[in-house]
Amino acid sequence: MRRVPPEMFRFTTGDRAELYGAILQAFGAANERLETALGVDDVRGRLRMIGWLDAVHDDDLQAALGKLREWQLLDVVQNHAENYRTAEEYERRNLQYSLTRRGEAAFAGVEHALAVLASTGALQTAVLEAITDRLDELYVLMGDSAASDRRVFTTLMELEGHLEALLSNTKAFNGELQRLLRAEGADLATFREVKAATVAYLQEFLVNLDQRGQAVATAVERVEHRGVSLLHARALWGAELPPTADGDPAPAWLERRRARWEGLQSWFRPTDGARARVEQLHDVARRAIVTLLQVLDRITESRRRSSSAVQDFRELARWFAAAPGEDDLHRLWSAAFGLGPARHAHLAHPDPELVPSSGSWAETPPVEVSALLRTSGRTERFTRTGKVRDIGGIKAARAERARKERAELEAAWDVLGTDGPVRLSGFRMLDHIVFDRLLDLLGRALAAAPDAGGARRAVTSDGRVEVVLRPCPDGGRAVLRTSHGQLEGPDYLVEIRSPGVIREDTG
Questions:
Q1: Distances in Å between the alpha carbon of 302 and those of 182, 189, 288?
Q2: Of 154, 162, 157, 153, the residue nearest 132 (C-alpha)
Q3: Listed residue (277, 245, 281, 250) closest to 263, CA to CA
Q4: What is the pTM of this model?
Q5: What's phi and psi for 495, nearest 5 deg?
Q6: C-beta separation of 97 from 76 below 8 A
Q7: CA–CA dist 436, 355 (Å, integer)
Q8: How far apart are CA 298 and CA 181, in angstroms?
Q9: What helix, strand, coil percent values describe the chain, rounded to 5?
């Protein structure tokens, strides 16, 4: 890992840290206006523009500029193009300060750190759709030789911007989510509302997430089919990079593009067989929903449940501590524990003659008091246990009923069994029990989807009977009669058999 220069962020500490930061912010605001060099008076004016209203003496300002120059955050040059009328004017206007590369990086790092502290992150499905749109646009541009390389460059930059937004927002939101899962809020009402809103937010994000992720993966595959190297080469031509003193900037630029594309692949279409990160995000969101719902259930249950004995005794102890006098303490004790009424006074020792009546209660042995005496005022009464009920008759009756139902079922299957396809209208008059079994088979078959030949197949729940239903070539109506009435409907070719029995299809 590359090391950060040791003096790069020294301006953020010390007694003058605020002044150092304000000066760098003033130079950053000047750079936005394409003003790269500032004199002492210009720096003072820029400080007022960014909101620094404290008075700064010239010596303090010069010392701060000198420190920033010592840390290589500012560079200073002499302005020989000016005409100076006095020595004082020469001294104040001759030196021009500007940000170095290190100063620009330090200021950008602080700005980014403050932005991260203020951000909360978000899961935005619109970003996924924007990534898909940019990939589709790149696919079209790659197939059009007449398309401008500048258009390829700008589209690629938009794609990387959307990807960077997705990564940064996802990381920030996941960090906030994990902190929320570990948090224990003091205000349970607010705490519950935040968790409930987060659950709703996650559920909304998960809707069609799989389809959106697959759409991005498909778009990535299409662009790769036309060549990522060619895409980066055309984007490089459209970037029109300026020459630098350090050499050709193209290799470093292409390396950054390849790294960004690998990041896109790892999220949506990994080449090493690993699991796509968008699927991991799906799992994280679902686990968070389950965890948050569990926490919400615990919070709701704790609000519904009455106070525990420990809380009751602590509250009672506070009442005892706040009692104004001893008489109040006795009344509180009597109200809390209910030992005032002597409902146990009638109890005696097993052998009262062994205990003298003149003895003190503190010196005599205790008398066992029933627990029911405290709650109901009565002692236990022991009686004989009840007889265990004989359920042999019930089991026999149930077994007989099961055998009878099985016999009826076997008889129904024997009646309904066919040696091949027969018309439904051929059954005509049926016993009501047999009619119920036939109606059940017809319902199962009609609920099944027809195959290529129009036949519908279904099997009973025990797997013993299979029904095949085919439409009659000539149509027709079928009327089935039972002792309870009749059923009329379309006629079908019906075949009822045991599964696995193969017959020649005559339908």
A1: 18, 12, 21
A2: 162
A3: 277
A4: 0.43
A5: -130, 120
A6: yes
A7: 82
A8: 13
A9: 60, 10, 35
